[in-house]
Amino acid sequence: MSRESVRYYALVPVIALLLWTLPVSGQSGAKRDEWRSYGSDVGNTRYSPLDQINASNFSKLEVAWRFKTDNLGPRPEFNLQATPLMVNGVLYAPAGTRRAVVALDAATGELLWSYSFNEGKRAEVAPRRLSGRGVAYWTDGKAERIIYVTPGYQLIALDAKTGRPIPSFGNNGIVDLKREDDQAMDLITGDIGLHAPPMVARDTIIVGAAHTPGGAPKSRRNEKGYVRGYDVRTGKRLWIFHTIPTLGEFGNDTWENESWSYTGNTGVWGAITVDEDLGHVYLPVENATGDYYGGHRPGANLFSSGLVALDIKTGKRIWHYQFIHHDIWDWDVPCASILTDITVNGRTIKAIAQPTKQGWVYVFDRVTGQPVWPIEERPVARGDVPGEWYSPTQRFPTRPPAFERQGVSTDDLIDFTPELRAEAIKIASRYKMGPIFTPPVVSRWEGPLGTLILPAVSGGANWPGGALDPETKIFYIFSNTEMTPLGLVRDKEKSDMDYIRGTARDPNAPAPKPGGAGAGGGEGGGGVTVQGLPLVKPPWGRITAIDLNRGEMVWQIAHGETSDAVRNHPALKGLNIPRTGRTGRIGVLVTKTLLIAGEGGFFMTPSGQRGAMLRAYDKATGNELGAVYMPAPQTGSTMTYMLNGRQYLVLAIGGAGYSSEYVAFRLPSVPS
Amino acid sequence: MSRESVRYCAVLAPVMALLLWTLPLAGQSGAKTDEWRSYGGSVANRRYSSLDQINASNFNKLEVAWRFKTDSLGPRPEFNLEGTPLMANGVLYATAGTRRAVVALDAATGEMLWMFSLNEGKRGEAAPRKLSGRGLSYWTDGKSERIFYVTQGYQLVALDAKIGRPIPDFGKDGMVDLKREDDQAMDLITGEIGLHAAPAVAGNTIIVGAAHLPGGAPKSRRNEKGFVRGYDVRTGKRLWIFHTIPMLGEFGNDTWEKESWSYTGNTGVWGQITVDEEGGRVYLPVEDSTGDYYGGHRPGANLFSSSLVALDLKTGKRVWHYQLIHHDIWDWDIPCAPILADITVNGRTIKAVAQPTKQGWVYVFDRATGQPVWPIEERAVEKGDVPQEWYSPTQPFPTRPPAFERQGVSIDDLIDFTPELRAEAVKLVSNYKLGPIFTPAVVSSRERYLGTLMMPNTSGGANWQGGALDPETNILYVFSNTEVATLGLVHNEKLSDMNYIRGVAPDPNAKTPSPAGGGGGEGGGGLNIQGLPIVKPPWGRITALDLNRGEMAWQIAHGDTPDAVRNHPALKGLSIPRTGRTGRIGVLVTKTLLIAGEGGFFTTPSGQRGAMLRAYDKATGKEVGAVYMPAPQTGSPITYMLNGKQYLVLAISGAGYSGEYVAFRLPAVPS
User: Fold this and answer.
1) Secondary structure letter of residue A20 according to DSSP
2) Percent of chain A scoring above 90 in pLDDT
3) Is the bond into A485 cis (omega within 30 degrees of 0)?
4) Which of A84, A240, A530, B320 is 20 to 30 A from residue B104's alpha carbon, by CA?
5) A73 vs B111: CB contact, 8 Å cut-off?
């Protein structure tokens, strides 16, 4: 490199500074070298136009820095799910078991400041602990703020320069989200929190809500997950949206027997999306109390398991679309909807695409809420769980096709060998099988023990959601192909619900210990396996590319090298099994040049080291173009930025025996 | 443990800690409490703790309680973390990372409570003493608590210990620029002065020393002077200054002939400073002057270089001094804290101060008067023949206690594992001048001597980590390296305006001369034979000296034999006792044990690359336990008690293993 070009590079910070003063474009990926919002932009595309890292050099990536999060809490964390932000050369991220916020020099990983709030018991009993999934950034061009939600559900605004709370925001920088929530709750034990980052757009902070996982809730009563808007400068509450409509509000009649009054949950724990031009907020709403039993909440249960569009100024509902009526599969909407302007049969549509656990991406006109392609109400099977209320129909999108397998039949079971197949059929015979929306059953030892559901109750897709290439309108998503055995039990010791998730006990087995699990209620379940192998055929982790202009699948690949347990399985010896993929929570990144995703789970990498690979794919074909070693699997979604002339990739990794860290990759300093 | 006692612990332990916390600190008898409030345990620098939960019977059961990785506290990871943390009121304070940040950690979990970091830009980059430094200091008046440290760029920072933010009414917004008010003009960015040591805080005074670039090949005979200053702990106001190089009219100025006091620099205090709070005395271990190995530009004895100086804590006025080396040309400056010990010699109690040194002696004085406890004799030493050098005709030789390191080099010191190795060693040293301690450097020559072989090395013997003292027995423990330096001088006008700097005469037969011309520069390195040190082991040792009797109690090799020696083909079949390993190893004395980690990596008994943290019987030096560490000790261990558990914390790091603080404690269920 000549001295001349060295001098040129010295100017890059000046250029970055100039770019930094440009207004943020809401929904078409980062226009510049930064990553200012959880999903890159408030339209959550997870797209970056950067192109320095490309197919020809991806495998040459080197670790630029690591940031270990062990000491940002009383103990190390092993599942760091966050996506950092990068603004003006500084990386902002939550970290550690106390959910501290850190500011790092984005070139070196040097810690510039950290902020940590010890909430004592309030955090210890919080339903959503650990470091969470991200923070939000706001600027008016002068002041810069970092905004996040603590484990104890407090909204904090920090000065991005110093990491100190903004005195004029809320109460010395803090808004207690357990107050002013249109419901009474205990400030310590109230079952509400949030892993997702708050959304900040148009000077408004929008905050969702999450609760303890609800497969076996102690009660049919719980805190409600309302959504609120706050003034980004003062922390003043601007509006609230009742995800469970109160008396007199639209949709209240979908909660029969006054079940709206005590039923809780129905929060928004996925990331929220905004169209700043339209002034719309898009909420991915979860299901209501009782993930798998809705007998105490008869009716369709608006706005559970649906997409709701609000006016960002007032919080008033503009439109909504319920994906699942009266959800009893826990297929709540887990992730951000994605904004894109597509062209369907020559017509330009301002669209919104919502990936889901159940394996469909639902596409709407985001102005009106009209489906882009027909979504049909079709009759579905009714179950026979006592007291349950069954929706006679459910909604089936006609396009695009599902990105995951849906429903379970004998054809879905593994057939690596006739012996494994026979064993799988025998195991599955103890369960009820059927197409998507086959409801859970009361678990009986003599059978059925439960319903086999695919995708699993955790999806299909989950919180990482998808990514969108604004140039091609191709949508990319990682999903797990896993099955959940879903049985219900009665257990009055554990819950005042008539049924909670659980598995019947062998009546001939020794009596359970006193104070034990009673009839076996609890989250439990786990996967059903055959000699340690999944019951259903691979791929078990996959990436799907869907053309949103045409509503068609472009390609689908297994993502993740075959696990050691499968590669070394004695029953599979001598068989030639194509790459099976590995499960995980894998957020994908699209750049100008590549589709990038790390693997979930550990395996013995090609270099012989335990770890996982960060992989790059051809966006048009899904062909793998490169891979680099990581010492642990991806646990947080990858982001990218450009700084001092170099493109960086940063993601959170961690796993069993490897405490969490952010790791930054870039190309070697001397291009070769 | 019964449920009853669990409840007891949970309720009373914090209360008890609080009660203890309000007691006044005893300045000079080791930590009286369960804490570690000063770099050396206390400002008496004994590195002693009365804790006893960790003992000979359970040391091997120690487990890692937490680790604190320092990588991200600076623009790049650090691989030589030398800091000693403090623990006060359940919070551990430490310097960390290549930016020398200060962190406060939960002492039970290692959770970071706050971090303070000052980006000094070019001033930090140009600093002579970079990286994370060796420590910081704590002060409380019983209500407010402060942390003090010196930045890489030589600024004194006062932080609120609760929140880690600068104290607004201290200095200017919490900072005192130490490059100002130093009785000499210097550039605020490039002025060559800094400090690795922790400032000493005693009473309401902060005492700050000074360090410079290593001075084997200084660019100039002129340099910044390392004066020592006292500051008010509340306001940051300068209270006094002590001129380590006396100005015109001050005592000792005449030991700098030809007005050399005016331009000569260095002569700072880069080791840890000790205070006798009761006696109101500050004890300064002063370093040598500009030109570590050539003093031709500073003729005279050069007071107070390489001297121990006692000052009045209130005024900074000199009370007494003792020069350990006249006109030091070996870089045997005083590297570490003097240690306060109340000893009994022939039935007489003496409030003593004991000064470990690079040259291998512990000098012991009555700390009130500066009188040697045992005679120190001025003996004639060899004069060298380096042009224009000024040689002191005599040097002081302590008669007691005996040296803890080998001194001087003769043929008898060379390795004799095999006759072949011995012959090779003898041949190799024939190019060097050998002699007893204080044999001076020579001008490097291909015809005669490439240099003088000196032992201890120019880096000691002892170095910054110093020693420890058991106040119950008055036994002083010190780790030292047994290494040889090759000390030659060259003339090189391109590199320096000094007549001579350290270097090796160029080989006239070499095809291309080294870019540095005459080969000046720090250089030197160790002489070795087939990769083996040229002198006999042990190469790392711990010595116990009885300060009541002025005698050596025991001496052992510290550190298992390195892999390079164990696997050396020339040593195959030989049974070589533990050789020790070199390092900068601070030792810790507790009620029950002497504790020290190893320097350098080796293949540990478990087969993992790492180093061992070892515990010894204080009376005999017999090893009583060892636990695995993934990297060698690079900072001195401390100990404290918290919630009923004793912790050991030390800094470890090394090649391929970035710096971290690691905390050990016994398993939750005693077994």
Assistant:
1) H
2) 91
3) no
4) A84
5) yes
Q: Taking CB atoms and an 8 Å limit, are A111 and B101 in contact across chains?
A: yes
Phi, psi for residue B16 in degrees, rounded to 5: -65, -40
Among A68, A72, A100, the residue with its CB nearest the CB of B71 is: A68
Judge whether residue B261 has pLDDT over 60. yes
- Residue A175 tokens, joined: 């808004």
Query: CA A27 → CA B62, B504, B576, distances in Å?
Result: 55, 67, 72
Structure tokens at A307: 């997409």
pLDDT digits (tens, 9 = 90+) for A431-443: 999 999 999 999 9
CA distance to B331, B405, B463, per residue, from B475 (Å): 28, 17, 19
Asked if the Cβ–Cβ distance from B110 to A105 is below 8 Å, we say: no
Contact A198, A256 (CB under 8 A): no
* Residue B427 CB neighbour total at 10 angstroms: 10
Q: Both tokens of residue A654?
A: 């961690």
- Residues in chain A predicted with pLDDT less than 50, given as ranges, are 1-30, 514-526, 672
Average pLDDT in the B255-266 region? 98
**Residues sharing a CB contact under 8 Å with residue B647, sequence separation 6 or more, in sequence order:** B65, B87, B107, B108, B639, B640, B641, B663, B664, B665
Grouping H, G, I as helix, E, B as strand and the rest as coil, residue B312 is: strand
Q: How far apart are the first and last CA of chain B?
A: 12
Taking only the tens place, the pLDDT of each residue in B630-649 is 999 999 999 999 999 999 99
Task: Please classify residue B186 by burial: count the beta carbons closer than 10 Å to its beta carbon, then call 0-12 exposed, 13-18 middle and 19+ buried.
Answer: middle
Task: Name the closest residue on chain A to residue B104, using Cα atoms.
Answer: A71
Contact B71 A109 (CB under 8 A): yes
Encode pLDDT of B398-426 as tens digits: 999 999 999 999 999 999 999 999 999 99
User: How far are the Cα atoms of A247, B272, B302, B437 from residue B325, in angstroms, in the given order?
Assistant: 92, 19, 9, 11
Per the CB < 8 A criterion, the answer to whether A200 and A148 are in contact is: no
Search chain A and give the residue with CA nearest B116.
A113
How close A11 gets to chain B, by Cα (Å)? Answer: 18
A112 contacts on B by Cβ (under 8 Å): 117
Which residue among A66, A75, A108 places its CB closest to the CB of B109? Answer: A75
CB atoms within 10 A of CB B567: 11
Among A267, A106, A261, A237, which residue's Cα sits nearest to residue A175? A237
Q: Which two tokens stand for residue A627?
A: 């891979």
In whole angstroms, give the CA distance from residue A476 to residue A545.
5
